[in-house]
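Work Package 3 committed the consortium to producing structural models of liganded targets before the mid-term review. Because experimental data for this complex are still outstanding, the team generated a predictive model from sequence and the ligand definition alone, so that downstream docking and mutagenesis planning could proceed in parallel. The input record is reproduced below exactly as it was submitted to the modelling pipeline, together with the SMILES string for pyridoxal-5'-phosphate.
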Amino acid sequence: MATTPIMNTYNRLSVAFDHGEGTWLYDTDGNKYLDALSGIAVCGLGHAHPAVTHAITEQASKLIHTSNLYSVPLQERLAARLTALSGMDNVFFGNSGAEANEAAIKLARRYGHQQGVDNPAIIVMEGAFHGRTLATLSATGNRAVQVGFEPLVGGFLRAPYNDVEAIRTIAANNPNVVAILVEPIQGEAGIRIPADDYLNQLRDICDDNDWLLMLDEVQTGNGRTGEYFAYQHNGILPDVVTTAKGLGNGVPIGACLARGKAAEVLTPGTHGSTYGGNPLACAAALAVVDTIQNDNLCKRARALGERICDGFREQLTGSDYVREIRNKGLMIAIELNEAGSELAVLSKVKGILLNVTGGGRVVRLLPPLTMTDGEADLLVNTLSKLIQIYAADDR
Ligand SMILES: *Cc1c(COP(=O)(O)O)cnc(C)c1O
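The resulting structure, written out as tokens with the ligand in place, is given here.
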């Protein structure tokens, strides 16, 4: 018999939070924690950011939802902001990252059919994470999360991440391919950062083959890597880009942006969402986008990422327990030489919230873009000490 009324899909740490402010979370016993995870890259502006709080309380008192059967002016404003800052042409709004990717997958298939491809296939990567719905789970490159859910959705071809030659080989042998779906940095896999020109090379291959380049920026978007979208480091434009997490600072929203021929594929009746892009979610996201731009938070993410990683390198280099410290903006990884999953629990006890991913070997830090220098230094000092003690105890 079930022991709790919550379905048992998560192993949770034994802490519950009552409220938050900026980088800090306060538990129900009054203890405070430095949040270096931001609810998994969601609360990029920290907790209870006044601009977001103001936007959603104001909007909630006026209008929360009307459905997409009518014009939604806030949705139009948000779409205009997002297309202007991304270089894309239009947007479909859903409520999560998985839904944004579902929209992209459906778009790619329909694009394929329009090109006369009866069995369109999408290239996806080993180690990828795209969500938990059936199609996005099937696109995800991690067998462990797929087991027991077969039959998976077909139409995906798997290639190693950061391997352009593998994609060229697929291109030469598979006339059914219509798109590539790829994360600019693999987040769940352990902050895997590809070669600097990886996206540029994928862009070229897509151009040569008339494929759509579809970037999953659910985690990398919204300023996290030091540009609003990670592809902006490469000076290219994708055909489709999806985002979610940091877009609503905790209010659920997902977006699938498209450009050029990809922007024409979905037409009335081909896709939809009851809630997607409702006034409340769009008010929150507009406040987020405004704040990221007005407060120069992309630039701040770059500076803060450097400060934090320089600090870790100073304190942890030479430790034979630490294999590598790497980052792009505020996607920060401390890769260990062996599994260290307990570090999530131990750091919680020390008042730091983080997450261990990449098979238990990568300490993943996704701090808010609004973190102060003092908080960053506290994070570096506390966590470095903890890792040193843990490494010493461990052997
Ligand atoms: C979190 C994540 C998703 C899934 O987003 P949900 O909102 O949980 O559905 C998809 N892709 C990437 C890259 C993610 O990090």
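Reviewers should note the following from the model. The two ends are 40 Å apart (CA to CA). These observations will guide the Year 2 experiments.
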